[in-house]
Structures are given as C-alpha cells and as structure tokens.
Design goal:
Elements: H1 3-11, H2 16-28, H3 35-39, H4 46-63, H5 70-77, E1 78-84, H6 93-104, E2 117-123, E3 126-136, E4 144-156, E5 159-165
Parallel strand pairs: 1-5
Antiparallel strand pairs: 2-3, 3-4, 4-5
Helix pairs in contact: 4-5, 5-6
Length: 175
Amino acid sequence: MTRAIVDQILQSRRWCKAAALACASVLAASPGLAHAELLNAETCAPSVTAANQKLVMDAIAESSGGAAVLEDTAAKFFSKRYIQHSPGVDNGPEAFVQYHKEWYKTHSPPKRGSSDIMGIVAECDYVLIMHKRPRPDPDHPGKTYDTFSFDMWRIVGGKLDEHWDSAIEPFRQPQ
C-alpha cells in the first residue's frame, strides 16, 4: 500500500457516522464492558490511538502476503488469547493461520499497492476499517456492484487481541 493511499484513507471521514454506528452495535453485543472501559477514555493518549491504528495497518499489510507469511504474521501481531467473533472461525492465532491458509487456496493475495480499504476509525484500543468489495451482480451477468463491510480489532498490550467483522453464516434452508 502506498503512502498516498494511506494518507487518503486517514483523511477520509465521510463515512465515520456509519462506522461509529457499526462499532456501537458490535460493542453493545460484548456483555460486561462499560463504555469508559471500552474506550479507555480517561487514560488514552492520542499516541496510543495512532500506534494501535498503525499496528492494524501493518498486520493487514503483512498478512496480505499470502499463506507463506501467515505464521510469522500471527506470531508478531496476535495475542495468545486472540478472540475471533466471526462465525465459523475459531479463536487463537493458530486458528487465524489455518483459516487463512485455506482461504489462500482459492483466493490470490491482493496486488501490492492495491487497497480495498475505504476508511479507518480508531479510538484508543479499538480500530475499525471499512472495506469496499465488488460482488457479481446476479441480475446483470458479467457486471459487479460494490458492497461495504467492516473489520474491527481490540488491541491489548500491543497485540491484536479481539476481532469482529460483518461476516455472516452462509444461508441455509430451514429443515
């Protein structure tokens, strides 16, 4: 990812309200955490927020290198207790590695310098990223339409400790 792309992402704030609402709905589903604890508001310096945002961007950049770098990426960036809130994905850095090794069997790593990231919102220990991804248009074969999704991480002790996203379980017919 080029520095110009990162600068553009960091300056883009048009989607912040939507991202904040997405954050709020995810955090509301995390029982037992008070608002002040979630944002660590009394003790969070701007440098902490900036460092956490950089950590997430660095982890994304390194994990986009394909299956060969996943174990090193997990060891460098993930806490040992890494909690994954995505359906069908287990907790722990080992589960992250296994899931993405399988994913890379059918998907190519992103092209160097490309980014589907539309924006970032960071507040203390939480970093939210919004992605834009084209999907096949079922009504117009050969065409696509854009969808938007999010990934959010909680950082603890300088490591990615918890992850939420907009993933849903595949649709299943009722039996």
